[in-house]
Design goal:
It contains three helices and six strands. It has 165 residues and is an alpha+beta fold. It has a domain of 62 residues: Head domain of nucleotide exchange factor GrpE (Nucleotide Exchange Factor Grpe, Chain A, domain 2, Roll), CATH 2.30.22. The strands form two sheets. A three-stranded antiparallel sheet has the order 1-4-5. The radius of gyration is 34 Å and the shape is elongated.
């Protein structure tokens, strides 16, 4: 005759062990879900960082080309309107400006009477002008933005008050 052995686990012990296993499983699953979400956020952040890096990778080169653009402006200021070389200089300057524009460079727009903004303007002097004191009176040197970031502020003269007659 076969002897009956006592079961190793009671139903209560099995239920307790199952509950412990389920709790451990849920903890691991929650941790895995958090790690997955963290990784997806990391990937998004890295993609955004890489995009920003690519946008501004040529910033120094483009900023240096602004001096060439300035030199063209100085050269054009000295060349007579009727000089045949002027047309060629204007075309080369326009090409250079278009290249800069295609790479995200744009000129800071400045008008007489604009409020002075130290984040976009560099004050280089004061003059009497027909605009309120402290406002931009005239632009002395062009400023430029690269994808909305100031690369070079516009150089401006500020108004010190109304012109006296």
């Amino acid at each position: 005759m076969e002897e009956r052995t006592k079961p190793m686990w009671t139903p209560e012990e099995l239920e307790a062990a199952l509950a412990t296993c389920e709790k451990t499983r849920d903890e691991y699953l929650d941790g895995w879900k958090r790690a997955k979400a963290d990784f997806l956020n990391y990937k998004k952040d890295e993609a955004a960082r890489a995009e920003t890096l690519a946008k501004f990778a040529n910033e120094a080169l483009l900023a240096d080309l602004l001096y060439v653009l300035d030199s063209f402006d100085l050269g054009l200021a000295t060349v007579d309107e009727k000089d045949h070389a002027r047309k060629g200089m204007e075309l080369i300057r326009a090409q250079l400006e278009e290249i800069l524009r295609r790479h995200g460079m744009e000129r800071v727009q400045v008008k007489s009477g604009d409020a002075f903004d130290p984040s976009r303007h560099e004050a280089v002097g004061e003059i009497e002008a027909g605009v309120p004191p402290g406002a931009v009176a005239e632009e002395v040197g062009a400023g430029y933005l690269l994808h909305g970031k100031i690369v070079r502020p516009a150089r401006v003269k500020l108004s010190k008050g109304q012109i006296k007659n």
